[in-house]
Amino acid sequence: MRSIAASFRLAAVVASFIVIGCHGFATATSRTSSTKYLSLHLAAKDDTVNEAKLEKITSWSRRDMLSSTFASLTVALMSIATPPPTHAADFGVKVGNAEASPSRQEDNANVLFTQDYYYIFGTAAQWIEPDSTDFPKSMPYTKVQQRYDAIKKYQSRVVNGLARIKALDEGDIADPTVQDVYSLRPMGLLANSMLSSENKGKSDELYLTRWYVNEMYLHINDARTASTKDKAMESVATAKKAGNSYLTLMNRVITSKVGDKFEYL
Questions:
Q1: For the whole model, what pTM was predicted?
Q2: 3-class state of residue 201 by DSSP
Q3: CB 208 within 8 A of CB 235
Q4: CA distance 25 to 73
Q5: What's the average model confidence in pLDDT over 40-61?
Q6: Facing residues of 197 across strands?
Q7: C-alpha atoms less than 13 angstroms from C-alpha of 229 in its C-beta half-sphere
Q8: The dihedral formed by the CA atoms of 199, 205, 208 and 210, expressed in degrees to the nearest 10
Q9: Which segments of the chain does DSSP mark as H helices, in order?
Q10: Between 154 and which of 83, 147, 190, 213 could a Cys-Cys bridge form, CB atoms 3.0 to 4.6 Å apart?
Q11: pLDDT tens profile 87-96
Q12: pLDDT for 5
């Protein structure tokens, strides 16, 4: 989506470059024609206008043409170098979802999967209710065998991690930055196989799924470092929202031929 928008902006800039350059050339050409007309007019009135004078007038017209064209191309190049103004309020780790973790760094340096929804779109995503199909509207297709193999490889580890997340209410919060006791990395690796292919590459739905995994990671750590128990439990509840959003996306691509769907948190 971002790459498409960038392509449109590049096409617009190139078109502007061509239009401005042509305009400058046409303007300079018009000046050249006028100069030549002037030289002929003077020659008709004054027999003393010699070839040297005409050459001097013609050289002026050439300099005008080059100067005008150069100025036009300079304007076009400046338009490429100067990006359109943006509003800071349109982007941010909590823009789009007020419950997104405030501890996420703006450069995504403190998450498990750097290339996620925030990395691509610059905003947070909305939570997804269990079994909802409203967002996103569709899911990418990958081969059944590919999904089957991924479930067989990662499902047990993901289930164990989900059990640890369910138990966060009891107050036993391990540090996710030290050891992956919540199997968050296997969750991301499962999504890679379920939502991307060699032919189509990474999908927006995969970036979205990674964002939910990263939000679980961040909120669990937020709960661990919270100043009060209430704030800790608030972060735990939000981590579970992110977890259920992730599971909803996974369950949408788990058919009876692929395996068993996951239970929600």
A1: 0.69
A2: strand
A3: no
A4: 10
A5: 47
A6: 201
A7: 4
A8: -50
A9: 2-45, 51-81, 117-121, 144-166, 184-195, 204-224, 229-252
A10: 190
A11: 556 899 999 9
A12: 42
